[in-house]
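A further point concerns the way the authors explain their paired sequence and structure data. For illustration, here is how one protein appears when written out as sequence plus structure tokens:
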Amino acid sequence: MKVKEVMHKGVDWVSPDTPVTELAKLMRAHDIGCIPIGEDDRLIGMVTDRDIVCKGVASSNFDARRAMARDVMTEGIHCCREDDDLAKAIHHMEKLQVRRLPVINKSKRMVGILSLGDVSHSASGDNLLSECFRSVSAHH
């Protein structure tokens, strides 16, 4: 099975200058836990709901009215290709201990996101899936 058969399609990214309050509203409206951050037509990071809490709300000098995506984002992007075998992508997620991976095409354009939820819907009962869940969910 290929990543493109399982991934969530139609994903957009936002600028690093997007207010954190707007990110939270987007997450709530779309029922998602992460938003890719892009600049100059390339992905540069990711903001998760956990980033907003741990790097923002929990820090002593955080001002939600002024904070931008760049203030809480995790820099750097790990991704997979839409034509990758799903098993390869799952192993990549397992190694990185991440719950989501942006998916790119041959032109290096983001075409979707692969999440553990997407994987679980496609591979119920698979040992590979349960290994991935255990690894990704392990304490760091």
Remarks:
- The radius of gyration is 15 Å.
